[in-house]
Amino acid sequence: MTTKSERDPLQPLFGTLSLLFPLAALVLVAGAALGVFRSLRGSVCFPAPGWTIPSEVEPASPLRQGARVSRLDFGVCLDQPTLWERVLGCLVAAPVLLCTAGALYLLLALLRRAAADGVHTVGTAARVRRFGLYLLVAPPVASLVEAAALRSLPQHAVTRDLGGPDLFAVWDFPWWAPLVGLGMMSLARIMSASAEMREDLEGTV
Predict the structure, then answer these.
(1) Could you give the 3-state DSSP secondary structure of residue 165?
(2) pLDDT tens string for the chain (205 positions)?
(3) pLDDT of residue 11
(4) Sequence-ordered list of residues with C-beta below 8 angstroms from that of 188, at least 6 positions apart, any chain
(5) Residue partners of 104: CB distance under 8 A and separation at least 6
(6) How many Å apart are CA 178 and CA 109, to the nearest integer?
(7) Statement: the pTM of the whole predicted model exceeds 0.70
(8) Whose CA is closest to 149, among 107, 204, 203, 88?
(9) Are the C-beta atoms of 173 and 115 separated by less than 8 Å?
């Protein structure tokens, strides 16, 4: 007599991920919410990759009033940020974390529906394709938004142009995401063809 886990190859993986993914997604969303809250209510602190930010105690320092170098926080803090600087702080804190939480949610929903409907179905293939498209687009866009904010914020902490790296030097491009996304979309095409063949075979029996 076969057990449910033997009939359903997704069940062991799905059972484990059902416990881990909601917790991981909750941690990511909480981290993004905390970052946004800090950016909207307190000082805006951020790393400054590739920049040489002078110390506030250095003579003739170009740090503007209200800006400081903080080893305790991320690197540079604006204690009296403008509304736009708060928006930039939110763009540094939230997009990548929320994008990752969204990927976990979509993957869990995909596995849940695949476990219920079966792997070799047109609906499962369509959901795999959508998940692949999400990975192809969302993580690179989220990381680009974060990089643009990181590129802009350090200049708001000084009184003169310090140069600094270009956007693509700051952009931490998630190479894994489009590669996995393309792989998932290719897999979805194979699953779709397999599902159509299965329907044809069932129709001829």
Answers:
(1) coil
(2) 334 444 455 555 666 777 778 888 888 899 889 888 888 888 898 887 777 766 655 545 678 888 888 776 567 889 889 999 999 999 998 999 999 999 988 888 888 887 777 777 888 888 899 999 999 999 999 999 999 998 888 888 887 776 777 888 889 899 999 999 999 999 888 888 776 666 555 555 4
(3) 58
(4) 125, 126, 128, 129, 132
(5) 21, 24, 25, 28
(6) 20
(7) yes
(8) 88
(9) no
Contact 78, 66 (CB under 8 A): yes
Cβ burial of 46 (10 Å; 0-12, 13-18, 19+) is buried
What CA–CA distance (Å, rounded) separates 33 from 82? 20
What separation in angstroms does the CA of 175 have from each of 9, 24, 148, 170, 185?
A: 29, 21, 18, 14, 16
Other C-beta atoms lying within 10 Å of the C-beta of residue 160: 7
Phi and psi at residue 3, in whole multiples of 5°?
-90, 170
For 128-159, letters b (16+ CB in 10 Å) and e give bbebbebbbebbbebbbbbbbbbbbbbebbbe
